[in-house]
Amino acid sequence: MLKDKCGLFGIYTQKKEDLFHLMYLGLSALQHRGQESAGIAATDGSAMYLQKGVGLVSEALHENKIGKRKELAAIGHVRYSTYGASVLDNAQPLAARYSGGVIAVAHNGNIVNANNLREKLEYSGSIFQSATDTEIIIHLLARLPGKKIEEALPSVLKELKGAYSLLILTNKKLIAIRDPWGFRPLAIGELNDRFLVASESCAFDIIGARFIREIEPGEMVIISENGEKSIKFARQDEHFCIFEFVYFARPDSRLYRRDVYKVRKALGEELAKEKPVEADVVIPVPDSGTPAALGYAHKSGIPFDFGIMRNRYVGRTFIQPTQFTRSLGVRIKLNPLPDIMNDKRVIIVDDSIVRGTTSRMIVKMLRDAGAKEVHFRISSPPIKFPCFYGIDTPNREKLIASSSSPNDIAKFLGANSVEYLSIEGMVKAIGLPKDRVCLACFNGKYPILE
Amino acid sequence: MLKDKCGLFGIYTQKKEDLFHLMYLGLSALQHRGQESAGIAATDGSAMYLQKGVGLVSEALHENKIGKRKELAAIGHVRYSTYGASVLDNAQPLAARYSGGVIAVAHNGNIVNANNLREKLEYSGSIFQSATDTEIIIHLLARLPGKKIEEALPSVLKELKGAYSLLILTNKKLIAIRDPWGFRPLAIGELNDRFLVASESCAFDIIGARFIREIEPGEMVIISENGEKSIKFARQDEHFCIFEFVYFARPDSRLYRRDVYKVRKALGEELAKEKPVEADVVIPVPDSGTPAALGYAHKSGIPFDFGIMRNRYVGRTFIQPTQFTRSLGVRIKLNPLPDIMNDKRVIIVDDSIVRGTTSRMIVKMLRDAGAKEVHFRISSPPIKFPCFYGIDTPNREKLIASSSSPNDIAKFLGANSVEYLSIEGMVKAIGLPKDRVCLACFNGKYPILE
Amino acid sequence: MLKDKCGLFGIYTQKKEDLFHLMYLGLSALQHRGQESAGIAATDGSAMYLQKGVGLVSEALHENKIGKRKELAAIGHVRYSTYGASVLDNAQPLAARYSGGVIAVAHNGNIVNANNLREKLEYSGSIFQSATDTEIIIHLLARLPGKKIEEALPSVLKELKGAYSLLILTNKKLIAIRDPWGFRPLAIGELNDRFLVASESCAFDIIGARFIREIEPGEMVIISENGEKSIKFARQDEHFCIFEFVYFARPDSRLYRRDVYKVRKALGEELAKEKPVEADVVIPVPDSGTPAALGYAHKSGIPFDFGIMRNRYVGRTFIQPTQFTRSLGVRIKLNPLPDIMNDKRVIIVDDSIVRGTTSRMIVKMLRDAGAKEVHFRISSPPIKFPCFYGIDTPNREKLIASSSSPNDIAKFLGANSVEYLSIEGMVKAIGLPKDRVCLACFNGKYPILE
Amino acid sequence: MLKDKCGLFGIYTQKKEDLFHLMYLGLSALQHRGQESAGIAATDGSAMYLQKGVGLVSEALHENKIGKRKELAAIGHVRYSTYGASVLDNAQPLAARYSGGVIAVAHNGNIVNANNLREKLEYSGSIFQSATDTEIIIHLLARLPGKKIEEALPSVLKELKGAYSLLILTNKKLIAIRDPWGFRPLAIGELNDRFLVASESCAFDIIGARFIREIEPGEMVIISENGEKSIKFARQDEHFCIFEFVYFARPDSRLYRRDVYKVRKALGEELAKEKPVEADVVIPVPDSGTPAALGYAHKSGIPFDFGIMRNRYVGRTFIQPTQFTRSLGVRIKLNPLPDIMNDKRVIIVDDSIVRGTTSRMIVKMLRDAGAKEVHFRISSPPIKFPCFYGIDTPNREKLIASSSSPNDIAKFLGANSVEYLSIEGMVKAIGLPKDRVCLACFNGKYPILE
């Protein structure tokens, strides 16, 4: 089973218009959530059209050459993970025909009991054409013939454990679903009577649409010619993913009623309070550490500056790695500004440390650029446990913080000090009750298990 | 449900070698059976690899760039039909995972009770990701969990009515199946201990392999590390498709123990006996009428010549048709040699007339080139009924012979005469007992119905 | 310098219309003259558009996506030779800007004093961006500033020795030129007031156009808004290329006032008279030997039949040759019909033997298929000398007939006999005076040298 | 003639190695200088290889599939401008053959007397295959046959007026040239005995190479097996382009002995001194205004923050603009953070205003996001005159500052105030003598004219 860390976008409109441009822009705004494949399923009310491709939205999706279509609704997906040649088979939306007609599904999250469900389904005769947990959802639905889709779905969803924000498209309806724990975000918007749904609000902004509200955990919203209907299919048991705030969402998005950028700055401020150190300059690891570094600088009174520039155009190079290019390491992506660091005591801020290998190269880069002291500050607590709800973290053995103290990590990185934000500090900066967020990757307390 | 008029090729080898070149050549030799998409599924004994693409084998299939694989077996498919955007979804082989593991299926033929079966399957929870009847076979198999595939297959096949030559690949076995009626051909060959299977023997010739025998109607052949095993899953009730001889198979293939080219010449000879006419020259409609025209000329003593040349490179043009290109009609593909026809009485021979529109343009072309008389001779009887077993014939209303006599057709075509071979003459030329061939498209007697 | 064996097509129309479809079809009909690249230059009267690509016309050329253009004239080219990576640089038409404005040139033939001219031009300051002799023509023209193009061209052409059929396009004029020796063909046609020019008349047939006449050797035809003007820029000294008849032109073309197909049959008849042998069947090497084999059969009274089928879809495969595919040799392209040859004395007819390696594989193929005797008959004399005028023949050492007698060749091929048509027989069959054809490849008498 | 705003990168190595990876990375680091096409010419000492393509380096350039080459030297180019279909013809390096052998040229800058030179060349017989002024340089060189290239070049360069940083590659030598005025940058670096040359030093950093020095204005450096030789071909008359500092170069590059990032911050500081205003927050227009905004904030003591986020993935979308997407305007690329601006007095800093249309949309965006006051501050003086030396500025009429005062511009933008840095302040911040920089776009004093 693959882990999905993806982005969703959907539109329903009574205008019957070609939805490609809106879908294209909406998915582009969510591109940071997945850059490996992209797809759109659209319906004109009687037939469904599907296109998927490998790469960025601009590489994977193309305007219909035959002419404009009168489309009623569409759902789209950008995908993070790829596993070799199978990339296209697992691209989403996934479409199939079952007793209820044609259906397309796009999914963000990870079903933890997927293997279990799939084995049961296979044993009772289901066949699978992808390696995604999303296909399970269609199979479960197909096992309930004769029911309307909104009546069948609650029984299907009851069987699922884990993280799932879902968009479902039939030839007549668009359905948006968020799991009872609310792990992954999903929001509703509006653009001149068009109903919109997106993983993050930044997808509304790009097309000048209005953010309305987030879908509630355990809520299913059905849009059809009869208008919008909301069903609570399960009791809400909120455990928002903290990592959407720390790293994954776009800073200009609004999540769980919080501005992401503002939260990230607050994390940096809290970090400055908890883990102060004397220094001459605060610099971010670009771009992930920038808002927190700014918050740290504001609170500490130490000047903020840019000490590292990003090579924006080599992030997705397709050249085969050679011994030489490997030896260049992080230098291919990041370039230090010696003038900023030379003979200075430098605080460098990032959002997290996973394996520690990149951070180590960054410390060396700063030292080579003349930094007198390097203090690494992390705007989240140590990641000690893997995520089962859709964030693609490695095994415990590879998570440096699972076995090493901040002091040990400082030695490994070659830094003068390494300090993390505390769980309490993080929760406070985010401003949500501690029991309504998922802290599993930090404290190992998993809200649900298989 | 789409009708499949396709080509199959498969290899099983204990050598564990990269099978791409052999598959590529074998499928290329069968390209006349389908030019719209091509695909290969291959296994190295533990993992299955699938590639499919649109167009000719040379356009659709590409060597693995990562390096050679140690492959145990592979099956491939070339496909005839396309229906708009869905072309890739319906391309074969079709692969899926079920309780028995991963499986790939390639299919030539048409299941007549497919709609019926699909409805039943959908009602009991199956989902479909293609519009092919092939997917039904995998679903039926998946409904029999816990059984070995060769034990489950006979029950599955008992449910199928219609035409099916099948290749099935698992990570351990290659299985070749021919329906009890034997509508579509399927033959076994050998190349230095490699087991081969192909729709037509010409696919063996191209790689220097040896033709061994045809698979019997109602026979299933399983190749695995335990060698070759043959199972008769149903009583044989032979109804070979006559059209494979008349038009569809390659002239250098061997089918039902007959040489196709020789049969086609014999059809022309028989036609000359049945439907003689005084004339100066016998010419074929290239390339379909060439062997029969040669037979007709031999038997009648009237000189054979080429009167029409084919524009070999414009058969598959992708330019958008315009009013002007449509007005050119058959001229884009065929060019007359006026010198051959001028002031002559011409017998033109083709294998069949379907709608009559192309034949009409050809008669006009010969007249314009100076032919004094044009006698159309057809080396098969009038097609009056649609085929349900895999030949893509139009509805009865569009079959000109279903409502018009040869005289009426002659008037429509502008020919001096139009004559067909009789059913008796055709059967005699082919040399098979009349009750062992399918004559449905000529006499409406369908061996099986839904 | 590369040798060009190419096809030309051009249109001039007062209608101002999008010429893409006509150009596409015309070039497709000439595809047999060059399959490695294709290009079109078109003018709307004030700006010139150029597109070129690698491969067949259907692969290389694409309709303008922006919309239809109002075009005044266009010239196009299909190219035979490729030399590695340089394929696009040498693709034609070649376009450049010089003191007289923008110009595009398409060329069929080979300038024998090209190296000489290029050295002179380079020494006096010219730079070259292709490896084609065509670029020389533009340079020579650019050296005559201030002259009208039709006034400058005669001086330019006087410097050229060798074979050149040329199409030249400016924003106002289309100019068609044939060298004084008339090595390569070039003909004028008409389609509803559109002026057409093409290497062979079959390009007129495909679009329903009328063949008017061939351009005379040493003639230049200029089409502009002032109509059509003909200039004789040199005294005619006809030496038509015999090989256009023997092999290169399409059988349905009309060249030098002869029907190519009729000439090829006549070559076979003459061969039957000159080189008879007792046998049971006459078969062609498809497709090159087919008309001559038919002529041989007619004249000799021995039955004509097809003994070898062509694998039409593997002619242009792009798979990397491996040891195994090389071992398959001609089998990949040709497949014998054993039933036709078994226990028979076979006459096999081809148009020529160059190196002898393919012919040898064909003889072995016939023997393996059961032929009792194999008599190879060639419908042209032995090729003993290389061509310098645009046919891509190898060096003398590789021309098997340059050093071996027919008997020796029979031994090399494994044939019972090998016999060629005599020069006299060939000239007689063609029906042109011996002093008006080029026989250099047969007798070494080169009409012009560098 | 097209204007070139481009990037150059070159390598010469005695190691004879495949240079693709180094070229690919070096050009990627210069991607900000041109994103429309990319190309590499490389020599193995006897043959030259050329590849060019449309788009980013990652789209345009591909590793040689045939295998690694033993290359002696290579030059590469990224290009800014595109003009419709002609994009590939004008891509660089430009290669040609002349009396001195094969040569490739890559050019950054703009020759102001190009039309004049081209007319002269055309009149005396030269033909042009591109619309670039670069081709003129090869022609001029070709007019001096018999001379060594380094002897011929000074005479050629004397004829050129305008901006030219050049890389020239022959099969034996790499030559780097900078015009006497030094408009465009060009620097020398070293990586383990490999000689490097690049438009900006950031191209050395990405591969871990060492910056050595800038090439002097009027200097030509020749690298060959005889080592490195420097020739002063003209008296130096420095007029460095100010805009490389203000906007064009990468912040982590080092130009004219100054750190670009540091200069940009200093421009912001100077601006704060010259044009202060009371406000609550300083925000940049990302990314162009970021360093200056930080400088402004530091100097003024007003907090720096990010108020606008960039949609990184929609910068280069290829969807056809529609009325709807046009109505979205700058929103497609930029997204405001309302929380930062709401009810605040905002200073927004950018590097320049050209037409004013984008700035106007940004002001509206800030107002909509709740800004109480909007003060636009520009870290360079008003651009009143077009550039003739390689920066692609529009005509005077379209330069808003050529006819409008800051107050008028403020009205047009809807800003509370608009203020520019003075010429004196800019020169002071850069720290170069006023007579050694080109200020033509600000004051109309052009160092050279045609």
Q: How many distinct helices of chain A?
A: 16
**Count of extended strands of chain A:** 23
Structural class of chain A: alpha+beta
Mean pLDDT over the residues of chain A: 92
How many angstroms separate the termini of chain A? 14 Å
Query: Outline of chain A, from the CA principal axes?
Result: elongated
Largest interface: B-C, 53 and 54 residues
Strand order of the largest sheet of chain A: 3-2-4-1-10-9-11
**How many structurally independent domains of chain A?**
2
Name the CATH superfamily assignment of the largest domain in chain A.
Answer: Aminohydrolase, N-terminal nucleophile (Ntn) domain
- Supply Rg of chain A: 23 Å
Content of β-strand of chain A:
25-35%
Task: State the CATH topology of the largest domain in chain A.
Answer: Glutamine Phosphoribosylpyrophosphate, subunit 1, domain 1
Largest sheet of chain A: 7 strands, antiparallel
CATH class bucket of the largest domain in chain A: Alpha Beta
Quaternary structure type: homotetramer
Uncertain parts of chain A = 82-87
Task: Describe what you observe in this structure.
The structure is a homotetramer of 450-residue chains. Chain A is of the alpha+beta class and 450 residues long. Chain A folds into two domains: 7-238, Glutamine Phosphoribosylpyrophosphate, subunit 1, domain 1 (4-Layer Sandwich), CATH 3.60.20; 262-431, Rossmann fold (3-Layer(aba) Sandwich). Chain A is built from 16 helices and 23 strands. In chain A, the strands form six sheets. Chain A has a seven-stranded antiparallel beta sheet. Chain A has a six-stranded antiparallel beta sheet with strand order 5-6-7-8-12-13, with helices on one face. In chain A, a hairpin with a 2-residue loop joins strand 9 (187-191) and strand 10 (194-198). Chain A is elongated. The two termini of chain A are 14 Å apart. Residues 82-87 of chain A have low confidence and may be disordered.
